[in-house]
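Need residues for this backbone.
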């Protein structure tokens, strides 16, 4: 049995520019809703990532073109 002390895990999101699905590392300990900018690993254009953590710990990521 684990104590659920995981501080980061990976979630997938689709680039708002090229549509490519990439995997990003998210950190639930930084808050239930997070917003930051990350460059796409494929087309290098900046995406605004809005990460929302559900009560069960799963992350949903919305991407917007910056
Ligand atoms: Zn892209």
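Answer:
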């Amino acid at each position: 049995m684990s104590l659920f002390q995981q501080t980061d895990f990976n979630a997938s999101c689709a680039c708002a520019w090229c549509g490519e699905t990439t995997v990003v590392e998210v950190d639930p300990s930084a808050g239930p809703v997070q917003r930051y900018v990350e460059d796409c690993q494929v087309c290098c254009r900046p995406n605004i990532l809005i990460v929302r953590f559900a009560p069960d710990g799963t992350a949903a990521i919305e991407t917007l073109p910056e």
